[in-house]
């Protein structure tokens, strides 16, 4: 069953469930926004609002749909039903009104484009549902204008994660934040420290999965929110790196994410035969809905986090950061734990920080041997191409007066040689067949 079919079938059954019990259920939030925009994300999650007793209703509806029931927030009256059919999976979230009426509920939501509602029985049967849409705050007009506007002045004070959501929507949808929201977000930014790691993670990973992650990080930096989210980055501000760099440590890490955005968008700078396998590799989900591309950008943001503590200046003025990759790999563990990343994700990010210099060492070799290629991928495994991509973004973000720009062609050639070995000729050096195993030896 396709995602679209699962959504249609589930909502039809939910309509019958509501009619049989005399319930008034409303479709709300991002489901309607995405439906009005004809976005595919409409298939991933559906929000429903009910006047009261949402938990009780969700349990009964889960039984009716033969889905899994999950309590999200008991005090706030919020629960999730997960319905699956084959590979298709739908999350149906039910919540109590945030107020006495559906209009009161909409007035307390985050942004006007998410503050629309539709009686569940009106859904289906073509586009006629749009005429029955409840839109007290002008969300459809803001959608048409590609404008993001807060529903009420205390929206960010009430829930600071909405700061991240605002920029995530801007990055995903290409919407502009209304200027009046800027002081409200700046004032609420310190409260991001009180938000659970899981909620911060979900918003940030969604940002990193767009090609505007560096822009979002820049906006968060201007608000002072980046220091709240990642205090580990703050020591890099103003730390000069010498002639190979044109930016301080902090600025270089942001620029590395910008280079990731550019590179991962379509891999246009690589040879044509590498673009498809690279795109599939980067788009692979390490865990559900969290792609390898997003973790590459997170690693790019933190690849030099160990530099401030390891900075040394020689007598001749030359600056060194010996051991910064090992120290950075230790620092990143606190970040991955705070974001509640899975063990596999945390290992990936740590590997990319720890080994991000290694491709650079290989790139200076006049010729890569099969042994060198084998040892690189033996140590990094399937994280090898990700390490190469982080290094290349790092390299392209390094453009100081002493940087050897004349070496870029050779470095790109070595980079592609390693990528070809992994994706196109793995049997030659990456995973060569064993000449003899233990049974044959005996």
Q: What does it look like?
A:
The protein is α+β, with helices and mostly antiparallel strands and 442 residues long. It is 51% helix and 11% strand. The strands form four sheets. The chain has a six-stranded mixed beta sheet with strand order 3-4-5-2-1-6. Strands 7-8 form a two-stranded parallel ribbon. Helix 7 packs antiparallel against helix 10 and helix 20 packs antiparallel against helix 21. The longest helix is centred in the first third of the chain and has 19 residues. The model has no long low-confidence stretch (mean pLDDT 92).
For the biggest sheet, the summary is: 6 strands, mixed
Report mean pLDDT, rounded to a whole number: 92
Poorly predicted runs of 5 or more residues: none
Classify the helix fraction into a percent range: 40-55%
Task: Offer a few descriptive terms.
442 residues, alpha+beta, six-stranded mixed sheet, two-stranded parallel ribbon, 22 helices, 51% helix, 11% strand, globular
Reconstruct the topology from this structure.
Elements: H1 3-21, E1 26-28, H2 30-37, E2 45-50, H3 54-65, E3 68-73, E4 78-85, E5 88-96, H4 102-107, E6 117-119, H5 139-145, E7 147-148, H6 155-158, H7 161-173, E8 176-177, H8 181-188, H9 197-208, H10 213-223, H11 225-229, H12 249-266, H13 272-283, E9 285-287, E10 290-291, H14 292-302, H15 307-310, E11 312-313, E12 319-320, H16 324-338, H17 343-354, H18 358-363, H19 370-380, H20 384-396, H21 408-423, H22 438-441
């Amino acid at each position: 069953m396709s995602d679209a079919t699962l959504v249609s079938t589930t909502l039809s059954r939910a309509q019958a469930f509501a009619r049989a019990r005399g319930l008034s259920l409303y479709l709300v939030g991002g489901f309607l926004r995405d439906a009005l925009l004809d976005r595919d994300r409409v298939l991933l999650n559906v929000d429903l609002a009910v006047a009261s007793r949402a938990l009780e209703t969700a349990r009964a509806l889960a039984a009716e749909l033969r889905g899994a029931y999950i309590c999200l927030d008991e005090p706030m009256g919020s629960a999730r039903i997960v319905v699956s059919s084959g590979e298709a999976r739908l999350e149906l979230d039910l919540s109590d009104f945030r107020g006495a009426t559906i209009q009161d509920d909409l007035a307390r939501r985050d942004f006007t484009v998410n503050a629309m509602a539709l009686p569940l029985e009106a859904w289906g049967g073509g586009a006629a549902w749009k005429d029955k849409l409840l839109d007290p705050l002008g969300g459809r007009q803001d959608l048409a204008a590609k404008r993001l506007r807060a529903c009420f002045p205390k929206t960010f004070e009430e829930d600071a994660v909405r700061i991240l959501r605002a920029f995530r929507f801007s990055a995903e949808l290409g919407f502009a934040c209304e200027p009046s929201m800027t002081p409200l977000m700046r004032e609420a930014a310190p409260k991001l420290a009180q938000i659970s790691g899981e909620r911060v993670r979900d918003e940030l990973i969604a940002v990193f999965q767009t090609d505007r992650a560096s822009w979002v990080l820049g906006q968060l930096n201007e608000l002072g929110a980046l220091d709240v989210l990642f205090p580990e980055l703050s020591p890099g501000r103003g730390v000069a790196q010498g002639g190979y760099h044109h930016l301080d440590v902090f600025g270089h890490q942001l620029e590395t994410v910008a280079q990731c955005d550019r590179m991962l968008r379509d891999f246009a700078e690589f040879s044509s035969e590498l673009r498809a396998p690279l795109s599939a590799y980067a788009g692979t989900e390490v865990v559900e809905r969290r792609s390898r591309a997003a973790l590459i950008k997170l690693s790019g943001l933190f690849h030099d986090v160990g530099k401030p503590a390891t900075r040394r200046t020689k007598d001749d003025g030359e600056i060194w950061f010996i051991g910064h990759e090992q120290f950075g790999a230790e620092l990143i563990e606190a970040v991955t734990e705070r974001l509640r990343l899975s063990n596999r994700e945390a290992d990936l990010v740590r590997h990319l920080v720890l080994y991000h210099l290694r491709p650079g060492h290989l790139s200076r070799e006049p010729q890569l041997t099969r042994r060198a290629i084998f040892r690189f991928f033996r140590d990094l495994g399937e994280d090898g191409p990700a390490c190469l991509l982080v290094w290349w973004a790092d390299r392209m973000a390094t453009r100081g007066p002493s940087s050897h720009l004349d070496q870029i062609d050779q470095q790109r050639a070595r980079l592609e040689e390693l990528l070809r070995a992994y994706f196109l000729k793995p049997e030659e050096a990456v995973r060569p067949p064993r000449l003899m195993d233990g049974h044959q030896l005996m």
